[in-house]
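debug: dumping io for the single-chain case to check the tokenizer round-trip. Nothing else runs in this session.
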Amino acid sequence: MPRLAFRPPLFNSASPWATTKTDLQDLYNSPFTGAVTTRTSLLAGFPHDPSIHQHTLFDSPTTSLNTYGYSPHPLKFYLDTVKSIITDTGKPQTKPFIISITGTPEEVAEAVATVSDVAKVGYNLLVEVNLSCPNIPDKPPPAYSLPELRAYLDLLSKRKEGVPIGLKTPPYTYDAQFRVLLSALKAYPSLVSFITSTNTLGSSLHLSSQPLLAVSGDRRVVYQPTLSSPARTGIGGLGGASIHWLSLGNVSTIRQMLDQVQELKGIVVIGVGGVGDRDGWQRMLSVGAEGVGVATALGKNGVGVFAKISSED
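debug: decoded output
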């Protein structure tokens, strides 16, 4: 399979701001995006509950926290939407759609087969398997576990042909975690076409700016979590500028790691995390990203952020 290339190497990553047809249409119409990524979906959709699945954006610098699961729309919604967007233009497709999916290994294998069937009739599609969401109770991100990663890759390896497959990884913070990813990829050297690094950083908490109450007799104060969450703690996934340097380190490490194994050199790295200006974009490219995804800055500034990133002097 040819090495992936994105022109320009700038687009959105899977996020709440890629949920609806309008979201995806605007991203596709932008001349400053080289691809469009859908919000992560399941075969049957995710049971979204706005009382516990939330996000907030805050400054100094621009950062986000979310307690979301996945899209409430099923995979079929996104495939139908992509076909509609392209058909409505009356012109050939101008950029790929990255269909972000998740689920059990069996569900993911079925989803990839479904996307492949659509691609066979002439659509330029990639599949991103999201194994990195930190917000699902009692289901830690599979990309931290070698047995779980292998369970996904083993089922996916049994397909004979189809769309390019990528893995979306969580932030790794020590060497053994990177080695888990490398070991899994080496066992299936021709399967994965790209790595999207990174998803949000879990176990993060944002508190309200004003204390809820002061504890009499000492200096302690009690603050209210800004968000709700499935566990009612307000703890969720941190994104945006606050994780940029961690994400940059992940992209650099993964690129160098892949380049040390001949069979894995062709895997492309998509860098995600805290890119909101041209400097951040260029930093990601400089450490080996061949595509750069934007989420928090898109949520804050809208699709115009891609023109801003591309045209800054």
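debug: round-trip ok. The CA atoms of residues 278 and 310 lie 6 Å apart.
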